[in-house]
């Protein structure tokens, strides 16, 4: 059985795809897995902000198109890159066990967030991170960043930054954990929807591959991510405001926390609800309604 697996070409994407391919080989031992690198618009336009080129979806669109026209059989995505809505005809056959959901600080001279000097320059390409940092520390300067993990870390020196904010999952997967200055608690830095989770996306009509991948699905991560993504969809998948969400499953109890903020961090609306795994989708919708009622709609109306 030949399986063409589509991925972005960054070191992190290839590391994650090789990890997923190893898992696939365990459930389909006779599979001949071919990794196909696909350049996405997000990879090509490195010198433009993500918002300018379309925000969410710029790292998955071309890969999903390749899947739909059968150039590849399976795609490996970082779930935080996947928009709330996916194309008709595609599905996630498995969500792999989640890595660390937190964001981290990598800083000059290992200065922690609470000791940042006034006017510190913090690099991030994420509106979500920028808004939450500004909410905590209004006097820091957010510097827009693009590029792979190492490129962003290097910009501490080349652009004279005090530090950069990155995802713990990517740092750990790339073997760069020792470079981390500080793990930022989710209480102050709520993660992106799907952060730390990898999804295996296939065509809905590929029944054999769906059956094979089903055994790789992590039910805990899948429930958490389903609730987070329902929250994202309910706020509008193409929302250009900072959005964050984190589902946490403990036994049968699922907690979902969500945030919508103004890009400058002056207004941050953050709410939490509880339910069970079977309510994951409804919880996302309900939490979005609460956030919109508490001032989120006013923020959206200003956009």
Explain what you see.
With 303 residues, the chain is an alpha/beta fold. The chain has three domains: 1-98 and 197-217, D-Maltodextrin-Binding Protein, domain 2, CATH 3.40.190.10; 103-184, Periplasmic binding protein-like II (D-Maltodextrin-Binding Protein, domain 2); 218-303, Double Stranded RNA Binding Domain. The protein is built from nine helices and 13 strands. It has helices spanning 11-27, 41-44, 61-68, 127-136, 149-158, 168-173, 207-214, 219-235, 280-302; strands at 2-7, 32-37, 74-78, 90-95, 103-107, 121-123, 141-143, 163-167, 182-184, 198-203, 243-250, 253-261, 268-276. The strands form three sheets. A five-stranded mixed sheet has the order 2-1-3-10-4, with helices on both faces. A five-stranded mixed sheet has the order 7-6-8-5-9, sandwiched between helices. Helix 1 (11-27) links the parallel strand 1 (2-7) and strand 2 (32-37). It starts with a strand and ends with a helix. 45% of the residues are buried.
- In whole angstroms, the N-to-C terminal distance is 49 Å
- Quaternary state, please? single chain
The poorly predicted ranges are none
CATH superfamily of the largest domain: Periplasmic binding protein-like II
Give the ordered list of helices and strands.
Answer: EHEHHEEEEHEHEHEEHHEEEH
- Walk across the major sheet and give the strand order: 2-1-3-10-4
Q: Indicate the overall shape.
A: globular
The overall pLDDT average reads 92
Helical percentage: 25-40%
- Please report the first level of CATH classification, the CATH class of the largest domain: Alpha Beta
Whole-angstrom Rg: 19 Å
């Amino acid at each position: 059985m030949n399986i063409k697996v589509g991925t972005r070409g960054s070191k992190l994407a290839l590391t994650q795809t090789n990890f997923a391919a190893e898992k696939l080989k365990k459930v389909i031992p006779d599979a001949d897995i071919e990794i196909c690198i696909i350049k996405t618009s997000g990879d090509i336009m490195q010198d433009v902000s993500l918002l300018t080129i379309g925000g969410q979806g710029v790292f998955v669109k071309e890969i999903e198109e390749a899947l739909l026209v059968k150039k590849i059989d399976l795609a490996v995505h970082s779930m935080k890159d996947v928009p709330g809505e996916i194309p008709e005809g595609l599905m996630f056959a498995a969500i792999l066990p989640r890595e660390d959901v937190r964001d981290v600080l990598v800083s000059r001279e290992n200065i922690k967030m609470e000791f940042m000097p006034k006017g510190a320059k913090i690099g991030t390409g994420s509106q979500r991170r920028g808004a939450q940092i500004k909410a905590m520390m209004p006097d820091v300067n957010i510097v827009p960043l693009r590029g792979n993990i190492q490129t962003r870390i290097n910009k501490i020196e080349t652009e004279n930054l005090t530090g950069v904010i990155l995802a713990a999952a990517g740092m750990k997967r790339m073997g760069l954990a020792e470079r981390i200055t500080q793990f930022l608690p989710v209480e102050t830095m709520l993660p992106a929807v799907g952060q730390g989770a990898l999804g295996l996306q296939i065509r809905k009509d590929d029944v054999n591959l769906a059956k094979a991948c089903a055994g790789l699905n992590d039910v805990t991560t899948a429930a958490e991510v389903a609730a987070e993504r329902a929250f994202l969809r309910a706020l509008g998948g193409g929302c250009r405001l900072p959005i964050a969400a984190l589902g946490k499953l403990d036994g049968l109890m699922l907690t979902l926390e969500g945030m919508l903020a103004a890009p400058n961090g002056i207004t941050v609306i953050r709410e939490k609800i509880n339910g069970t795994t079977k309510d994951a989708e409804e919880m996302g919708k309900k939490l979005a309604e609460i956030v919109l009622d508490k001032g989120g709609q006013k923020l959206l109306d200003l956009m």
